[in-house]
Amino acid sequence: xxxxxxxxxxxxxxxxxxxxxxxxxxxxxxxxxxxxxxxxxxxxxxxxxxxxxxxxxxxxxxxxxxxxxxxxxxxxxxxxxxxxxxxxxxxxxxxxxxxxxxxxxxxxxxxxxxxxxxxxxxxxxxxxxxxxxxxxxxxxxxxxxxxxxxxxxxxxxxxxxxxxxxxxxxxxxxxxxxxxxxxxxxxxxxxxxxxxxxxxxxxxxxxxxxxxxxxxxxxxx
Length: 221
Prior knowledge:
CATH architecture of the largest domain: 3-Layer(aba) Sandwich
Keywords: Ion transport, NAD, Potassium, Potassium transport, Signal, Transport
Organism: Facklamia languida CCUG 37842
Distance between the termini: 37 Å
Low-confidence stretches: none
Strand order of the largest sheet: 3-2-1-4-5-6
CATH superfamily of the largest domain: NAD(P)-binding Rossmann-like Domain
Pfam family, one: TrkA_N
Number of strands: 10
GO molecular function, one term: potassium ion transmembrane transporter activity
GO cellular component, one term: plasma membrane
Number of helices: 9
Order of helices and strands: EHEHEHEHEHEHEEHHEEH
Oligomer: single chain
């Protein structure tokens, strides 16, 4: 995967965790916060850790945020997110993602030009609910406004059948992206349609918000 330059603006619990994980995954991270304590905590883990008011155009420009492929606004204050967004648009950043705690702010941010809005607590609630009610669903990630990625284990009725026989796309409106057999460390994206599904195989698939319930219901039976 090509290394990206990703700027994380706001280094609270969410922002710090995001910045650290991105850096561990090999991405070049620019981390900015007003509080020096948060900046110092990340200084040894990211490419650039900067103390400053990230809602200011001059601060963002000097920190090199204009060269970022993606910027994540992780501010806890809505007004500050708006000011930061305006500064980023002036820098012509190609992709802007914003975090908010309030669902009603989501439409506002999208209308103002944010490419994707994250509601961490709401998203985590959905994922945890699916985990509690359906042991086969390992993860459910909202990729954008229309699509979700699902990680799940093989249902008993699929064991012994081939990928082609199960026909995930037609039966469950799911595009199968990768598969990992028990004992393997990595997922395989080159999926053989004649592969015979085994117990405890793990799959990753892509579906849309309207169709996701099809695969969830199938796994719950």
